[in-house]
């Protein structure tokens, strides 16, 4: 049975139960009220007759029935009662709708309270059948009870009147059922539209899949309703907020969990926000915030996804490294192809000595570089990077030199090599771009010099170039993400990555302008013991101002 059919059946059954229950209760209440009204009506007629002077006087006459029977019958006809019986204390009738029963004893057995002076309403079976009757005592001038007046309405007549009410109630119930069934169909269709025609099993499967997807992605996801209360948060979001997986945050207000969030602004404005930076505890994250709309394009809440900023930088740097290695291999291939063409030409020209000299010179240069790197910079990742940058500089016709006094062997084991690669690689790339930009309007040869040292308590990285330099009015804005002095899109990333990596390693970076040959010198200092650095600099990482 499909969901829509089930909903119609359930709603119709519920409506039928409610209507039938209410109808039964209403019928019982109406019947009781009607019987009470009949009883009170009979009692009022009886009490009225009991205090009539003519009735009281008739009790003192030799033939009371002659005076009482006409009066009681006249009143009975006018009030619509089935019978009015007047009797003495012994229960002998003085009046009755059937004259042949006058002089006989009253039937019912409920005269006791009346003879004691009380008016009553009772339901009993008399000589004419079951009836609801009101009884009142006839009291003489001296206060004694001298007779009884009984006014009755037969229950058969009451039931016929109740049947009319019952039919009307049944008709109203059937109309209610029809309206309820129509409403059930409309409700079922509305529910089906709101759940996109899915069955309960399909909804359960989608919920399970959604939960699995949310828990599998490496991004924090948190959603709120339009009032700001959390409706969903995955495990990675809890980790970034330093909360345990068992901690219940559903139903809490977002500001109680993330005081600096902008999700409420997204709910108010209905506008999405992309790639915004945010601090969650000690974690730097990149956040996307989007409003949630229903089928009627009404805003119902907002959802935020955020990912660790260092992790994004690490992924970006890994991609950059792959690109750099590929460019280095291409440059090396291109450079060696040119060398092979030269050697091939020299051999064809039978200039064998020149060919040998060229081969020896190239071999010596590369052998010397490789031996120097293996001896002074034994880390294979950093060494491979420097050799690749050297080959790339050769292709660009730039002079790239690693200072002969460099040594970079004492790198602590805890230090992340990928961050060092980010710093060195980006500094060299920026230096090469600076000297290439200067060569477009200058005949001087571009030069880039790298100095590395591990002497002392810090690792020192110094990259010098004779490029176009940094304008004096710029200063430390060069470290900001997206800022660049070079034209073109997708610029201003390299130094931002360098600064981020330096801060991760608890170091600092500075630069000064090379007044002698032009260009810029960048210097990075990274402590081998970051805990000692933090004690000396309790306010965080230090980045000095540029020196002139």
Explain what you see.
There is one protein chain. The chain is an alpha+beta fold. Helix content is 49%, strand content 20%. It has helices at residues 3-50, 53-58, 64-79, 112-115, 155-194, 200-216, 235-240, 254-257, 263-269, 309-348, 352-376, 380-395, 417-439, 494-504, 530-536; strands at residues 83-88, 93-95, 120-126, 129-139, 145-154, 220-225, 230-233, 273-280, 283-293, 299-308, 399-402, 447-453, 458-465, 508-513, 520-527. It has a five-stranded antiparallel sheet. The protein is rod-shaped, with a radius of gyration of 53 Å. Residues 533-548 have low confidence and may be disordered.
What features would you highlight for this structure?
548 residues, alpha+beta, five-stranded antiparallel sheet, 15 helices, disordered C terminus
What is the topological layout?
Layout: H1 3-50, H2 53-58, H3 64-79, E1 83-88, E2 93-95, H4 112-115, E3 120-126, E4 129-139, E5 145-154, H5 155-194, H6 200-216, E6 220-225, E7 230-233, H7 235-240, H8 254-257, H9 263-269, E8 273-280, E9 283-293, E10 299-308, H10 309-348, H11 352-376, H12 380-395, E11 399-402, H13 417-439, E12 447-453, E13 458-465, H14 494-504, E14 508-513, E15 520-527, H15 530-536
Parallel strand pairs: 11-12
Antiparallel strand pairs: 1-2, 1-5, 3-4, 4-5, 6-7, 6-10, 8-9, 9-10, 12-13, 13-15, 14-15
């Amino acid at each position: 049975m499909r969901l829509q059919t089930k909903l119609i059946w359930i709603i119709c059954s519920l409506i039928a139960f409610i209507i039938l229950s209410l109808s039964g209760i209403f019928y019982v209440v109406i019947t009781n009220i009607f019987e009470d009204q009949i009883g009170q009506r009979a009692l009022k007629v009886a009490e009225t007759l009991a205090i009539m002077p003519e009735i009281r006087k008739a009790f003192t006459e030799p033939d009371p029935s002659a005076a009482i029977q006409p009066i009681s019958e006249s009143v009975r006809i006018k009030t619509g009662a089935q019978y009015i019986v007047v009797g003495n204390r012994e229960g002998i009738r003085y009046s009755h709708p059937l004259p042949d029963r006058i002089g006989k004893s009253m039937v019912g057995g409920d005269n006791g309270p009346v003879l004691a002076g009380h008016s009553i309403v009772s339901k009993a079976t008399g000589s004419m059948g079951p009836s609801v009757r009101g009884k009142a005592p006839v009291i003489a001038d001296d206060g004694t009870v001298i007779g009884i007046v009984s006014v009755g309405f037969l229950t058969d007549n009451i039931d016929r009147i109740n049947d009319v009410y019952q039919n009307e109630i049944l008709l109203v119930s059937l109309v209610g059922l029809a309206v309820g069934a129509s409403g059930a169909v409309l409700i079922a269709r509305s529910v089906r539209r709101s759940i996109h025609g899915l069955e309960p099993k399909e909804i359960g499967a989608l919920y399970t899949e959604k939960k699995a997807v949310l828990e599998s992605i490496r991004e924090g996801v948190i959603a709120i309703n339009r009032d700001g209360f959390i409706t969903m948060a995955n495990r990675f979001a809890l980790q970034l907020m330093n909360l345990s997986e068992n901690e219940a945050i559903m139903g809490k207000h977002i500001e109680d969990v993330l005081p600096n969030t902008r999700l409420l602004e997204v709910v108010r404005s209905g506008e999405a926000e992309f790639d915004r930076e945010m601090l969650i505890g000690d974690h730097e994250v990149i956040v996307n915030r989007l409003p949630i709309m229903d089928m009627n394009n009404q805003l119902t809440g907002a959802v935020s996804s955020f990912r660790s900023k260092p992790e994004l930088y690490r992924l970006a740097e890994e991609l950059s490294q792959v690109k750099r290695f590929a460019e280095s291999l291409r440059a090396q291939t291109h450079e060696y192809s040119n060398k092979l063409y030269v050697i091939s030409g020299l051999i064809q020209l039978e200039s064998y000595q020149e060919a040998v000299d060229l081969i020896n010179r190239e071999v010596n240069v590369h052998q010397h570089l490789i031996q120097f790197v293996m001896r002074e910079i034994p880390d294979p990742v950093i060494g491979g990077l420097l050799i690749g940058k050297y080959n790339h500089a050769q292709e660009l016709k730039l002079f790239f030199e690693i200072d002969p006094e460099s040594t970079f062997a004492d790198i602590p084991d805890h230090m992340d090599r990928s961050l060092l690669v980010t710093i060195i690689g980006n500094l060299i790339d920026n230096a090469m771009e600076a000297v290439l930009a200067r060569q477009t309007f200058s005949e001087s040869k571009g030069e880039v010099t790298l100095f590395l040292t591990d002497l002392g308590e810090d690792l020192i990285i110094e990259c010098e170039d004779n490029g176009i330099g940094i304008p004096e009015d710029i200063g430390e804005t060069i470290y900001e993400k997206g800022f660049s002095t070079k034209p073109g899109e997708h610029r201003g990333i390299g130094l931002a990555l360098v600064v981020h990596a330096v801060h991760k390693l608890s170091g600092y970076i500075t630069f000064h302008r090379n007044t002698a040959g032009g260009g810029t010198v960048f210097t990075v200092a990274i402590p081998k013991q970051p805990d000692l650095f933090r004690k000396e600099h309790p306010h965080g990482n230090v980045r000095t101002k540029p020196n002139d």
